[in-house]
Structures are given as C-alpha cells and as structure tokens.
Design goal:
The structure is a homodimer of 488-residue chains. The first copy, chain A, has 2 domains: 3-90; 119-488, Orthogonal Bundle (Neurolysin, domain 3). Chain A contains 20 helices and 3 strands. In chain A, helix 10 packs across helix 11 and helix 17 crosses helix 18 (442-451). Helix content of chain A is 64%, strand content 3%. In chain A, strands 1-3-2 form a 3-stranded mixed beta sheet.
Chain lengths: 488, 488
C-alpha cells in the first residue's frame, strides 16, 4: 500500500467516525450514549494507530524520496502529511493518554464548577491542562512562545506575535464601534413581531435560502440539534444542523447561514482528494472566514433582505406589517452581554481579544490560574464598561479550556478578519459586485471556490489570503465593514 | 485480549457498520452513496479479519480448554462461537471474493432482467450463484442435502427434511383456507374511507401503539424508508423504519408493528451480552416469529382494534362513519396476487412453499436453471389457480437469489408457524390470556422476554420453541389460527 492508499483508508475511518458522531448529536436514543462512546473510541484508536504506524512512516519516506515530488500538488500533500505525521508522533502515548484523562475529568469538573459559579474547584484541573499544554508545546517546538505551538494546530503558519499585532491594531476601533452600536441600539431597537414562527415554515424558508446561496442538497442535509454544527461524512456528504425557536425565525436561519458557510467550503474542496491535504480544509480561521462571510457579509446585508424579506413575509404572515427597515434594525441590534455565545457581530471580537490575552499569559506563566478571575473581570470591565456578575458569566462560561482547547479562541476573530478581506477582494471584480448587489451570490461562491476552496490545505492560511486578496491578513477591510454597518 | 474482549471488539465494529448502513437507508444524500460503500466495505473487512484471525482461534481454544466451561451460558457461548468460527473459516478467501463479485454482478443483472422480464439474461448469473452455493455447502458439510448447509446459516438445528415435512403438512390446509379467504373477500371487502391520512398523524398514532406494546423509545426510534426494516446499532439502540401512504394509514402501522416485533426481540436480548451469542438473536425464523406475532396475532386481532379503533377514529376523522366491523373486514381482506411482498396473511405462505420447493430442487440438481420459469408457473398455477402474467411477476420478482440468499425463504413460513405456537403457548397462562383479551400486551411481552428473548442464541431454534411451548415446531397452532381468522 502506498502512502496515498493509507491516507484514503484513514479518511474512510475518520469519515465513519463522523457518521457515528453525527448520529450521536441528531438521532441517538438516550439510552444508547454509553455504547456509542465505545464505537467512537475504537474508530479513533484505529485512525491513530494507522496514522502513526511504522508502515505509514516508511511509505511516507518512500514517497518523499520519489521523483514524483516535482508535481506542486503532490509536493504540498507530502509536506503536509509530513507535518501531520511529525506532530502526531512527537507526543508519547503516555502523554496522549494523560491528556485525554485530564480533559475528561476537567470537562466534568468545569460543568459542575460553572453550575455553582465556583472557579476554585475548576482551578486545579486548569492547572493540569496548562502543564500538559506546555509539555505538548515543548515537544512540538516553537520559536516564539508556547502559544505558537498550540496555535499551529488550528492555524498553521500564523505566529502568536502576528495575532497579537492584528488584535492590538483593532482593539481601540472595535471598542469604539461596539460602544456606538450598543448606544444606537439602546435608543431604538424594534422587537420582532410575536411568534409562533412554525418550525416547518422555518425549515422551508431556510432550505430555500441555503439552496439559493449554492448549498447542494444532493450532497448534504440540514438536521436539528441543540448546538448547530457542520460535519463532513464523506466527499459528497456535508451535514449542517441548526436549532429552532418558535419565537424568532432568524435564530435557525442564521444558524443555517453560518453552518452553510462551513458547508459550502467543505462541498467546494476537491472531492477526488478527499482525505488528502489538497482535499481538506486548511484551518479553523479559514473555515470561520467562510461561515462569517455568509452569515454576516451576505446574510445581514440590506441587499440580501431586499430580496428575501418579501419571501419571509409570505412564510410568516405576522411580518406583514413590520417594515424592512425595522427588521434590519432588529438584525443589527447590539448589546454588551457578558456571554460570548450570545454576542452580536458588533461586540463579538471583544470577547475573543479578552480570551486571547489571558490564555497567552497563562501559557507563558505570566498569569497564575488563581489570578484568572480577577484579570478576566478587570479586562472585561475595561472592554465592556462593566464587570460580569459572577464567574459563571465570566471566566467559567466557555467549555474550550476544559477540553484542552487552548490556542483555539483566536481563530474566531481571525475568521472575522479573513471574511471581510475575502468579501472585499471578491467585490473588486465588478461583475461579482453587481451580482451581490442584486442578491445573486453564485458568482461570489464561484470566486470563493476558485480562490479558497480549490486550494484545500496546500497553502498556509496567510499565503492563501495573500494569493486570494493581494495582501496578508490585515484588519482594514474588517474594520471598514464594521464601521459602515454600525456607524455610518 | 481474551476471546470475550475480541467478541466485544467485533460487536463494536459490526454495530458501527449498522449505524452507517442505517444512515444510508434513511438520511444519506444521493451523491454520497459511492463513498458510503467504501466505508461499509472497510468495516466489514475489519470484522472479517478479526473474526477469522489466528489470534481469535487461539483465544477461543484457550477459553475452550479452561475450567470455566462448567457454566452453562459460557458453555453455550463457546459452542456457538466455535460454530461461527468454523463456518467462517471453512470458506477460502478466494471463494468469498468470488461469491461477493458474483452477487454484485447478479444483483445488477437481476434488476435489469426483472425490468425487461427477461429471465434468460439472469439465468447464467443464477447458474454461477448456484455453483458457488453448492461449493459452500460442500465446504460447510451436511448430512442430508446441500440445502441443509445453507439453511443452517439462517436457521441452525433445522434440517431441510424437517422443513419439508412441516410444509407438506400445511400445504393442503393453507390452500383451502386461502381460497376460502379470497372467496369471502371478493364477495365483501369494504374499502377504507378516502385519505389523506396525514403523515404526521400516522406517526403520532404509530408511536402510541408501539409504546403501548412495550417498544422502548429511550432505546430506539422510528424513521422513514422505502423498505421498512429493523436494525440494531448498539445494545440499547434499536431503529425501526416504515413507509407512509397518505391513502391508507394501516400501511405504515403494520410496517411498524412488524418491525417493532423484531425490535422488541432485540430490546429484550440481554444487553450486557451484546455481541455474544447469549446476547444475540438466534435465527431468522425466530426473529420472524416475533414480528409476525405482533403484526398478525396482536395487530390484526379484534380485541386489539376494539381498543385502538376509537383512537384511530380520533386521529383520522374520516373513519368516524366507518364501523369497526367494516374496518376489520378491510384488514382481513385476502387476494391471490402473483407478488409475494403484496400478499396478505392468508395467502403469504403459498408463495414460500413454492420458492422452497424450487430452491431445493435447483440446489439438488433436480431442476435446471433453464426450467425454472416453467416450473414456477406450473407450481404457481397449482397453488393459486392461475399463472403469473410474466416472469417479472413470477420467478424474477424477488431480490434474494441475486444476492446469493439461497435457503432463506423458508424462514418466513417457519416464522409464521413459530409465531402461532408461541402465541398459543403464552395464552395458556390464564392471566396472560385475560390481559390479551383486554388488549393489554405487556404480560405477553414479559412472557416472550422470559421464554424467547432472554435465551439469546444459546438454544437451537427447535429446542427454544420446545422449551417455550412444550413441543417442537408444528403447524397445528398456526393452521388453527388461520382457520379461526379466515374460515370461522
């Protein structure tokens, strides 16, 4: 078996785990959860064994030393396979097991600590997870600081210093825009007409929208879960989920637009290369750029609703007397909330800037775990003007750390930055700009397919953005988007 | 790893394949089918490798030679594991590959031949499949005739001669009852009031019925497919499917009752022994006895509808003016159809008797493939009084042979026989009989749990029936059931 046959086998195993994981979130009977975990554990151990085996290593070496390495796609695939192999094999089995055990305990401790708003009972777990994260960072290696090694797993080719520079540039502007947006909102924010917005009508409306922006229902579906997500079960099998509130049809719709953004990326990856780097998404920040682009730049735009609001009014008769202008105000409402997952477009990044700074200092040893709540509250007050009422609404709110997901949060704001830069670059093509202004998004999708999706993971994210937009990631387009939406 | 750890691992792999197979039939996007086949092939090859490995053999031998073999459940498990291992390893890899290739080609050829009603284009495939079936039979070994070795895979401990004796006994009586039922039906068979019977209302009604007969929705679900089935994705995860006709709510309901019968069996198997023989269904004939019992003995009975018809009338207002007596006549309507899957309870077995005889003679070499259509039509005319209009409605109608499923059909009628014998035995307990007469079926389910489900596959089907009912399988209870329903 060549390395490529092995990669295809690995993809089959991983895709099988995705099917089982998807079913777990959508349709699994309650009593079936325990056994399902065994199935996922078995598949994941098969995948790990294969991808870190001596045979894998040998086949990779054979391919690396072959003449075929002149082909640029092949070269990129071998480079990325090598990177993944080295990263996977640098950690000893003992550490992986310790990590998995620690996160499992930490997840339970976190849920309990959050419920009781008691940081001190979570603190020793966070301490352990930080130690493990630093151990991993040391084994993986880094040139700047430990955060670099963790970030590399989510956003390769991007240094912590680069992220910090981007975030520092945008901080004052985002604070100002957010404050302005919240102020306007508090002076005039019309409520959506009362529900019920029947679930069946929402599903029909969402499907129409998803289809119109190019989501291929022959190669995907939308199902229902508590927490919306997008997962890929095979080269032509992309599953989105959303949740429904009968009081507000926009909740499920924006869930669908966000997840469809992820889904369009997955559907746009070269299907023949499924499982290879050239057929895989490159990073969380690029993935998020796609979801945010469709959710915010398309789905929250005036032109989008000039086309779709009449359709919504047909689907939901209570909207008949509610003018488009009011609806747009409703969509663009902004509020300072202590909770990240409830944050709107105008205030979201402030939550990320806060987390990035704290994580970075924790990892560098400049912030002790015991001091996290105080620093959280102080920095939060600086950004938002008030302190969270308690740790449950503060430093205990997110699940990420308890899962060992350190170095992850930054990619949300990188996604926002990239989304704006890509959207602005696409609009430079006059025919794409014209189509967008007519709420026809297929030419935009075509541009994304060509400029982003087609590359898979063959380019590092900054280089991908540079080739697509003409410059490395910068905050310019994003800040100008936020200003024009919330200040103009 | 002991043999039991290996068995549990095998169960995890097989259950994973069931998840993926279930998704394939229920929710898979159309473009995703090709890749799904690769996932199933990988899992099935992993399962096969494990279950036929040298390590498996050694661990089985270690367990067989251990002292633990005094425990009766353990003894039974080791005996059945040995039987499965020997059966799986008696076939050379070359034959398994040839078989799989031949069935794959035959399935396509059959679909095409059936569409064109052209037996001659399917004949060479059937010839190949018969040769392979005989090869397999020779390798597995048999004392009577080749059909024995095939039947053993579906209905162990049951000889072809025994089946033939049972079928010969019932043939004249079933013909007479069927003819009578068809005659009565043609003189008076009221049509169901016009639809639509809305799908949502059917789903609600079916779920109520399934729950009332004891199906545990915490450990199972009902979804929608073209061909109803029941599959088990884990020890507490049983999935039923049905299909909906807006013109007739009884179609989905009887799909659910039939599949829930299978599902109650699966839910009643000892969950701690999942994957072991003691936690597995024993045979197709016993499985079918459970589905037929709930479908026909419970679901088509007068007492069942005395309770449920008022509920149906509330769910479907058009039933308001349609009396229960007419509804029961509608349920008990009988008709001679050339197509097995459209056959009713009164005429179903005639289709099976026909197939059993032809299969048996084909395998024994007493009937050449070229003569199948003529023999089919002649025997069909003898049983039904008319010949099928063409081979598409005759010997080409079923998929089974094209999948290499020779020796399978007999288990449908064995299931009918067993269902009646079990139901009659349960009714011998006066308190169970009283409950049944009040349309309370939980005591009946309790009896089936104890007498059938709890044994898993530790007893051969005939012995299971003997212990549960006091005598080996015989046609008495079944014929008496048919008579009382269709002649009295």
């Amino acid at each position: 078996m060549s390395i490529f046959e092995k990669v295809h086998e690995l993809a089959v195993i991983r895709a099988s785990a995705e099917v089982i994981g998807w079913d777990q979130e959508t349709y699994l009977p309650v009593a079936a959860h325990a056994y399902r975990a065994r199935q996922l554990a078995w598949l994941s151990s098969q995948a790990h064994q294969l991808a870190t085996s001596e045979a894998w290593k040998k086949d990779l070496e054979i391919a690396e030393s072959s003449d075929l390495a002149n082909d640029p796609k092949l070269t990129a695939n071998l480079r990325e396979l090598r990177r993944e192999f080295d990263r996977a094999t640098k950690l000893p089995v003992e550490l992986i097991a310790r990590d998995s055990m620690a996160s499992s305990l930490a997840k339970h401790a976190w849920a309990d600590a959050r419920a009781r708003s008691d940081f001190s009972s979570f603190a020793p777990h966070l301490e352990t997870l930080l130690e493990i994260a630093r151990e991993k960072a040391d084994l993986w290696g880094y040139s700047g600081e430990p955060y670099d090694a963790l970030l590399e797993g989510y956003e390769r080719g991007t240094s912590t210093a680069t992220v910090a520079r981007l975030f520092d540039t945008m901080r004052p502007a985002v604070r100002k825009i957010a404050a302005h947006a919240v102020e306007i909102s508090s002076s005039y924010a019309p409520g959506l007409p009362d529900g019920p917005y029947p679930v069946a009508a929402q599903q029909l409306f969402n499907a129409k929208v998803a289809e119109a922006i190019g989501f291929d229902f022959n190669a995907g579906r939308i199902d229902t879960t508590t927490h919306p997500f997008c997962t890929t079960l095979g080269p032509r099998d992309v599953r989105l989920t959303t949740r429904y509130m009968e009081s507000d049809f926009t909740s499920s719709l924006f869930g669908v637009l966000h997840e469809a953004g992820h889904g369009l990326y997955e559907q746009g990856l070269p299907a023949v290369d499924f499982g290879l780097p050239s057929g895989s998404a490159v990073s969380l920040g690029i993935h998020e750029s796609q979801s945010r682009l469709w959710e915010n730049h398309v789905g929250r735009s005036r032109t989008f609703w000039e086309k779709w609001y009449p359709v919504a009014q047909e689907s939901f008769p209570q909207l008949a007397g509610f003018p488009l202008e009011n609806f747009l105000r409703y969509l663009w409402r902004a509020e300072f909330s202590p909770i990240r997952v409830e944050a709107d477009e105008a205030t979201y990044d402030l939550h990320i800037l806060l987390r990035f700074e704290i994580e970075r200092q924790m990892l560098n040893g400049g912030l002790s775990v015991a001091d996290v709540p105080a620093m959280w509250n102080e920095n939060f007050r600086e950004l938002f003007g008030f302190a969270p009422p308690d740790d449950r609404h503060g430093c205990l709110q997110d699940i990420h750390w308890s899962m060992g997901g350190l170095g992850y949060f930054a990619t949300y704001t990188l996604g926002n930055i990239n989304s704006a830069q890509l959207f602005a670059a696409a609009r430079k093509d006059p025919s794409i700009a014209t189509s967008i202004d007519q709420a026809n998004y297929l030419p935009l999708l075509g541009w994304l397919r060509k400029s982003v999706h087609a590359h898979g993971a063959t380019l590092d994210p900054p280089e991908l953005i540079r080739q697509a937009t003409g410059s490395l990631p910068s905050t310019e387009a994003y800040l100008s988007h936020l200003k024009s939406r919330y200040i103009s």
